Amino acid sequence: MDIDIDDRGGLRRLRLSGELTIYAAAQVQSAMMAAWAGAAEFEIELAGVTEIDTAGLQLLMAAKRDANAAGLPLRLTGHSAPVVELLDLFDLAGWFGDPMLLPAREERTTAC
Predict the structure, then answer these.
(1) pLDDT per residue rounded down to tens, the chain (112 residues)
(2) Which residues on neighbouring strands pair with residue 45, listed in sequence order?
(3) At 93, which helix (H) or strand (E)?
(4) What is the pTM of this model?
(5) Is 31 exposed, middle or buried (0-12, 13-18, 19+ CB in 10 A)?
C-alpha cells in the first residue's frame, strides 16, 4: 500500500494506492491518524485502490465515524471500481454519504 499525504490550506488529502486489505490496515490506520491531526477537513482518495476487503471497509467506516464524532469533515473521493463494488455489495454508499462518480459500463457483445 502506497500512502501519499498532501495539504492544501485546511484540506488534508490522503491518497491510497494498492491493496486496502487486512495486510495494510494497521499501516493505513496509523497514517490516517497522523494525517488528520490538526486538519480542518480531511479527504481520502481511493482512485488508486486495486483491491479492498472487509478489513479495509471497516477501516473506512471507523474513520468516517471517528471523524464525525470529532467534528472533522471527512470525504471519500475517487472511488475505484473495487471500492464501488464492495460498497454496492454491502449497500453502504448511502451510509458514507459521499458522491460517487460511476464509470460507464462496457457493453458486452456476444458472438452470433
Answers:
(1) 999 999 988 899 999 999 999 999 999 999 999 998 889 999 999 999 999 999 999 999 999 999 999 999 999 999 999 999 999 999 999 999 888 766 555 554 445 4
(2) 15, 77
(3) helix 93-96
(4) 0.86
(5) middle
